[in-house]
Every structure is written in C-alpha cells, then in structure tokens.
Design goal:
The protein is α+β, with helices and mostly antiparallel strands. It contains five helices and three strands; from the N terminus they run ααβαααββ. The protein has a three-stranded mixed sheet.
Length: about 100
C-alpha cells in the first residue's frame, strides 16, 4: 500500500489519507497504524488521527493517553497542539479520539 501511494502521484503526493469502512471490526485501526508506521519509517512526518468517537482504539494499540484527543479539540477544551501525542516511533504523532462524548 505504501509503495502504491508513493508512485500514485510522484509530483504531487497525497497529504491526507483516510482509512474507513462501513462496518465495525474490519481492521481500520490496524490498517491505519501499519500504514502510518510504514510512512514514518520512510522519513515522512505522520499525524495519525483517531476519528472514531464511539469505539476508539489507537490509544490502546499505541499505549497512549486517551483522556485528551479529537473530542476535546472539537469541544474547545484543548488545542490540537495540546492534544497531539508523541509516540515511541520516530516521525509518528497521534491525535487520539479522546473521551467518548455524550450523544
């Protein structure tokens, strides 16, 4: 996948990639993490965002704090800079989903 993306648009590579599916438990988080790590290992700066506000997983897989993230940024309780978390992987920063908001 990383190789295909690399050669997809040599002169104008994509800056944003979305990983999604129509059903739960289809491997979105696993695919997103693996792609993010592959790109980070290729000397790209990667910001991985967990936009799943109902079933957040990235903070668990990457052993990060889940109490601040996308939902706290959306609510105005934190800025993106405050919510972004460094990982143990060079080049990879993560914005977890944050606390699950009420309906």
């Amino acid at each position: 996948l990383r190789t295909n993306l690399k050669f997809l648009a040599v002169d104008n590579p994509p800056r944003v990639i979305v990983v999604t599916s129509s059903m739960p438990s289809e491997g979105k988080s696993t695919s997103a993490i693996n792609l993010a790590l592959a790109l980070a290992e290729s000397d790209h700066s990667v910001a991985l965002v967990d936009g799943d506000l109902r079933r957040p997983m990235l903070h668990k897989y990457l052993d990060l704090v889940g109490s601040v993230g996308f939902s706290t940024v959306l609510s105005g309780a934190a800025t993106p800079a405050e919510a972004l978390q460094k990982t143990r992987f060079a080049g990879l920063t993560v914005l977890t989903s944050g606390p699950i908001p009420p309906n």
